[in-house]
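Researcher: I'm comparing several assemblies side by side, and this is the next one on my list. It has 955 residues spread over two chains. Same procedure as the others: predict the full complex and return the structure.
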Amino acid sequence: MSSVSGAIDWEALKQQLRHSQHVLSEEFSPSPEMTNRLLKERAKTLATVQEDLQERTSKDWLLFLIAGEVYAVPPEYVVTVIPARQIAPIPCTPSHIMGVVSYMGRMVSIVDLRVLFKLPQKGLTDRNSLLIIAEETMEFGLLTDQVIGMHAIYENDILPTPEYLGGPQSDYLYGITSSQYAVLDAARLLADPKLIVNALG
Amino acid sequence: MGKYNESLRKRLLVAFTAEAGERLGNLADRLAMATPPVDPALLETVYREIHSLKGASRAVALGDVEILCQAWESLFARIRKNQQEFNQQHLELCRQAEKMLHHLIKHPDAKAPDSLPMLCIQLESDSLATGEPDASATFPQEEAASDSAQVLEDSTSPLPPIGPVNSKRRLKVDVTSLDTLLFHIEDLQQSKLEAVQTHSHAEEAANNFTEWHRHRHNIAIACRQIRQQSEHLKQAIPDEQQTLLEFSDWVIDYLGQWEYRLSILARNAEQVARNIATASEALHLEMQNVLLLPCNVLLEGIPVMAKEIAQASGKQINLTVEGDSLTVDKRILDELKIPLQHLIRNAIDHGIEPPSERLVAGKSAAGILSIDFSQDDASRFVITISDDGRGLNADKIRNKAVEQKILNEEDASDLSDQEIYHQIFNSGLSTSSMITDISGRGLGLAIVRDNIEQIGGQVQLESTPGQGTSFSMRLPVSMATFRALLVKVDEFIMAIPAQAVIRAMRLPLESVRTIENRMTVTVADRVLPVWRLAEILQLDGETERRISGTRLQTVQLYAAGKDFCLQVDEIIDDTEIILKSLGPQLIRVPNILGATQLGDGRVIPVLNPQDLYQTACATAHSSITMYSEEAPGQRSKILVAEDSITSRGLLKTILENAGYEVTTANDGMEAWSMLRQSDFDLLVSDIEMPHMDGFTLTDKVRRYRSLSSLPVVLVTALQSPEDQERGLDVGANAYIVKSSFDQVNLLNTIRQLL
């Protein structure tokens, strides 16, 4: 029906219909061998799909933005997301420590990943959020430009960090996805003694 | 079914272990402290506890525990029956039995130690006793048990079934849920502040309609005129105008509704804020009470620990406790556990002498170790831990301090013995072998002091050679009673723990002297070092290092055993704070003790005075040049009090253009409070202002001692000679009438006055 200018070519249509009917009747009265073959084929296809699904298990990750780059953290390390307000600077701390905030009656230190990863910095806006992450004994917040939300990432979509990305962040990266999300290794970040401030008096 | 029973037993076992742990803890401490003749009340307690434990162990089918309790009970039964004295041997048996019981309960499913049957036999037969053969000892166990039960019932003082009866009903609460509750209450306080903020925003928004009222009036008039005109001329209103007219009508109506809604919102917000405030304050207050615990919880396990240490070092001690019923905030007590253990260990290990040495010195063989709790004032209490041992050796500390280059020889010999004793708290010192000689605890005493200071306390130490040492810790009763001085430095607000603050002083610049490139000031005949707080904390960065005014705001501190002064920009307030740690990532930040949240929600750092002193000493000398003379072009600070926005803006612009630093106040009241808080060189004030007029303000300024010489310029629309006279009467230096008000006149006047 490529032509819209003329009237409908009824004859051609009817012929097409007849042909389709013929093909259908052929297909739906298959010989036993053919049935067998078809079933086998289908079983194979199904099996492949199954295999594919197994390979492509996905997990939800929490995505956030820092200096225009998308980062992902495993949600099991995330305590909460709160607006970046009232961060109290603490004198005599290294530059990657932005300060502390009060959360649930306790003080939580805030790490500025932009300093740690040597990313460009700009002032805080309303959209800045703090992502508090924790494991058993360690807890701190990460300053983000914006928290995007939960997003499924296929396990096999996470590729090892390329060599050329040997920047300061590669220490804390679990990998990079094909869509260029930097997947953070929260456990390593939380366990890094370099991030801890413990000056002896 | 078997499975069910098994899981039930497991659950019961958990409950039993908890119960037994508590009973035993108490028992062990009391046995450890006991010496013959034993207080009959203690015997009753021990007896009662064993009996309860026996019953409980039967319920969870802990046969070994039951057997031991039974044997133990029979010991008591026999003593009672024969009216025997409870002697040292009995006490020793009891202690062994308690240890065994502790072991059995700790490992409920393990095989009982081989020594159990022997101990049971000893308990039952009182094998060490020499008295006539005891009938009950030969009784089969079952009967011994019933016998002892009999004794219990026959006992003259009827015993309550479980534990002491308290007229007040008490409830055991999981500590973690208590902590969570506390956090929530603190969060609620934050919500309270936010609600107040929301209310003021809503109110501000509603009040902003005043401006609109003026426009509305004009628009309504214009609309009416257009309509009347068209009616008058009998001409239809053009479409464009019609659209505008309709829009105006709609806007007037729409904004009218909004004004109403906003005023309702503001009122509701006020109500919400008030409700939250009431709830939050009530909860906070109640929580303070809930958190109060008697000090004896702090002592759990201490007597046993003390006994063990003494035994291990071949010493004898008598531990006494006084005043442990005093109630203190649980959070304070939690922080005291470790310091207390350190001090007890030190006292026994190094204070108290071995029995032979004591006897030679004419002391009792057993050293006396006492822990006293006493209320100091409404908000503070004191724990004193003292021993009657050999005391500290000042010369030894002196030598070591010199050896470690912590003191130079001259200083060391100049310092009094008491001052020298305080060196043992020095963390720099205590890592050395020297402290090992004196306390053997390495960093121990430094940690003790750190812990105590963290919770707003102070440690004092007294020692007399040959007579003993005593540590007193003065601490707040409640976490909320930590007072702090809020200071402003380089736009930052910080808190200094009040216990370290001696006084706040505004010093004339001339009083600051420079000795060997260091700033000093003489206060009450003493020369004290002065440091800029901003410099110690390295806050300066690119900011201007300028001191305005002729005075230096300083705070005199006493920390690390030293007096010193810090220069700050401003003193904001003296307030109560709750000190919090900075979280697990910031374990220890130099110069910073922790952080706190102020009433308005701001989080600010709390400074560590001791560190400040040390950092200051390590920092190269302060930049003196900025103080030694008035910096050229230093700007005078002028406060402008004026209620009209226009006049205020005008005055500010004129004065700032003339090179002055201008601060503005919206009325006399505000100006009055600003004048007292910070330094100004001159006041320019309107006369007619709400809350407090210019006359009253001037009068107050003249009557206030530190402000009495402040130049005051009144600027006003009032031009009657009477007013001018009144202005001069109350002490204004100049009176400028607005109608004759021109820049030159004003600036000339100010220049003359400054």
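Model: For your comparison table: Chain A has two domains: 10-55, 58-195.
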